[in-house]
Amino acid sequence: PLTNLTVIVPADAWETTEAVKWAAGHEGPVYLRLSRMPVPDLDIPNRTFRPGHAEIVRQGNDLTIIAGGPTVHLAAAAADLLAKDGVKAAIVSLPSFERFRAQPESYRFATLGDAPRVAVEAGIAQGWHEFLRHKDRFVGLSDFGASAPAAKLFEHFGLTPAKVAETAKQ
User: Between 20 and 30 A from 78 (CA), which of 13, 42, 94, 139?
Assistant: First the structure.
């Protein structure tokens, strides 16, 4: 088995470019898990890529939606739906569990905050338990191996902004 493997799941082209640059100078194996679906660039001013650090995509204090890769865009769409109901959701892009886990607990807590959390993943919940507490929620897939365009699979498995917003309200 690989030891010290760093997995990075970029949310957009900018994060992908920065991850490739970082990986080229990193000692040890790096796996860049890229999406097969097109994703727009996130509109975040003054971005700085720091593998291991989560990126605050949007500020909010009612709840925190944590996502990685293309699901960051899904989280942002869910936050837009929640905003219509007066819920201010923070969005946190978490591109690497391994690197984030290595940060001091004080940094991890400051980034994720104390508000209720919802993790969004186009996969299984494995690994997310570290960042979710007892009453926090996970929205993701419970099946593996289905084949169809990503948008159809997301709809079929309930990985939609509406489902994330509904889960967050719970």
Answer: 13
